């Protein structure tokens, strides 16, 4: 039994892997609770949008925008659902089917990181991230262009560049996952892409 782990924990697991898997499991449970909140908000938004859409006449210019927003929230919720399901499946399979894997379930997860089940979460997150950033960029466009702000086109250059950079880094991250034996901790390029994408997204949200 490795030192630093409880006496009845899975044997031959290093304290670091045990701690990572434990808090990862806790994170999955917490995310499921938050998903319930998100599902409730989604149903409420969906109901309101459908009611507003029914009230709009066929010749109303806002009909297409309301339909687009309806598609937007459905797409976001679908991506969130895919990410939650993938995360729950990974946690369940690793815990129940590979509890005695050499190095523990966390070690097994690291060897499977480029498999479809593991890539589902990052792909869904990436699409949801593009949608969320796209809405922020559109809001910025509405504020400056529709208000006839002078030099609006120049103001939008930086958000546009950041949005494109966000999409590119996310695509590069997912592409890196397809490489053999990809590992978020073992491949420096993968970690750099994650940090770069996070920094770009934070900058984009700050600018817009």
Automatic annotation (TrEMBL):
Domain of life: Eukaryota
Alphabetic keyword roster: Membrane, Transmembrane, Transmembrane helix
Full protein name: Uncharacterized protein
Transmembrane parts of this sequence: 23-48, 69-93, 123-141, 153-175
Species in which this protein is naturally found: Ephemerocybe angulata
